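Standup notes, protein team

Yesterday: finished cleaning the Sphingomonas glaciei set.
Today: Energy transducer TonB structure.
Blockers: none.

Input for Energy transducer TonB:
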Amino acid sequence: MTMLLLALLGATQPAPLIRTQDVPAPTVAPGMAPQVGLSGSRARANLASYVTSSDYPADAIRARQEGTTWFKLTIGPDGRITDCLIEKSSGSASLDAATCRIMRSRARFTPALDSARKPTSDTMSARISWRLPLSRPIPDRVTTAFTLAADGSTTDCRMEVTLNGNPERRLSPDCTHARPSGPYFEAIKQEAKGVATQVTIEILLIRDAAAPWPVLDQRGRRVVSREMARLQVAPGGQVVGCAVLDHRPLAAPMMRACSVVGSRVGQYTAAGASEMRMVIYTALADTAPR
């Protein structure tokens, strides 16, 4: 069920995915901090913000080419890139060439300082993941619900996907494939404490930055886990930052909003937006449905 939810959220608008990250990965959410070079140089903006969906080479799209380009930049004392070396190819000459062309022409750095506090040259390694678009738009809401019996069995599984305000309900006679599994499901059963209940798991994407956060704590249900995150969107449409504002997990691994976003950077909104939000929560009904 978790993979199905991720697949639904990963369904995209017709625009290629382009993702840029540090090597090694930063300790904060992808895109939340500027890249830091080996000797202290610092990008003036997140590297992902220098790349837009329109940069995907047309010949690579026609040839259905995608992959990850690993590269090393040499940054001069003036903060400009003096060299770009492909350390590991994406498998596409066009994607590799586009990577260095974009970095050379757009990326700017605050230079590193030597022991005398004077600007000096530096190197930095990073990667760009180029991903071709899928064919479907992203849902605004994915809701999965099922009945959890006192003995831990499940029935009445259903999923509702809302896209552009239009809900579509899908019934699943086999709850094994529709409900969560492993430690996540065991943690839900532990929260139920052997009492029959209705379980609801929802992923909500709020595209309107001015819209209020949803009220999760409602009469008749108990929210047992939730995560609320703010997404930063660059002018080109890429999600370049994800900040967790509230995280109340179950006693087991579960979906994380920033992980979901990180797998589909660049495909979550039209160009020009500056902020979106994502909510993931699991709730139990106070009593079993009749």
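Follow-up from PR in the comments: The domain at 17-131 is CATH 3.30.2420.10 (TolA/TonB C-terminal domain).
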